[in-house]
Amino acid sequence: MEKIIISSNLTQYRLIETLDRVTYYTSSFLYHHKGQGVLIDSGYGRLGQFIKDDLEQSKIILNAIVITHYHKDHAEGSTVFNEIPIIASDQYEDTFYKCQNVCTQQLKIPNVLVKDKYFLTVDTSRIEIFKTPGHTKCGLSVLINNEYLYVSDNLLEDINNKIIVPYLDASSNPYDHYKTIYNYQNLKFHTLLLTHGPIKENVNLTHEFGERLFYLETFIKSKFSCNIEDCLLTNIENYSMTAIHKINVRNAKKHVSIQPTSFFEPMECITKEI
Ligand SMILES: [Zn+2]
């Protein structure tokens, strides 16, 4: 486990893990000022303990923990903290109880439920927490001072900077995922933060978001039946963990019956490179 100082106010805590021969980071972020801080995701239990020990040493008191969705690698670490308010989506329940089944410690019911947007301040800094369903139904993202955008697992990447295709869990809706990525394009920030991926400064948004939008648009238009190659803008060898596509097909066919809503506005067609 390691601690990385991104700026005087922002710290990343991360570990490296490997699944199906793909290696990637799993991270939490701390935004702090004058001894007060907000923890954004908490990692597995062991990462949570690592963070707690470091905060005690650094004399930083947490005002809140934001859980961007209830998967073990984001929520379990929160169980090591006492009496810290937890902020989560008002859609948290389904994934909360599934997550509880795989966590060794008892998860705490969130204290603050985000209906649409929720604002926090740390000194003069403004932290905007807003709903971004996609990877899960209960997804949240965090925008700090229009400088840092934390997208949680709505964008995924391995340690070699290869894109991992969007991953729709059993609670997800691909239309929501599409809209969430589409809306990220309208935000102002200079650094993109991923739970599972490198820190990306001055990123090429057309590339970062366009790849995922193309995947999701093709997936939706095919009624969740397309081959993975049809959903990718470049050769499949440029992507990581492509087996996720089969999970997406299975989950979407099983759980998603609703048709495009006002949430879904088809974008201008992205041209695929040949
Ligand atoms: Zn994750």
Kindly describe this structure.
- With 274 residues, the chain is α/β, with parallel strands linked by helices.
- It has a single domain (2-255), classed as Ribonuclease Z/Hydroxyacylglutathione hydrolase-like (Metallo-beta-lactamase, Chain A, 4-Layer Sandwich), CATH 3.60.15.
- Helices cover 26% and strands 28% of the residues.
- The chain is built from seven helices and 16 strands.
- The protein has helices at residues 45-58, 72-75, 93-102, 174-184, 205-221, 228-231, 244-255, and strands spanning 2-5, 10-19, 22-33, 36-40, 61-66, 86-89, 112-114, 117-122, 125-131, 140-144, 148-150, 156-157, 163-164, 191-193, 200-201, 239-240.
- A seven-stranded mixed beta sheet has the order 1-2-3-4-5-6-7, covered by helices on one side. The protein has a six-stranded mixed beta sheet with strand order 8-9-10-11-14-15, with no helix packed on it.
- Strand 9 (125-131) and strand 10 form a beta hairpin.
- It is globular and about 50 Å long.
- The model is unreliable at 266-271 (pLDDT under 50).
- The chain binds zinc ion (ZN).
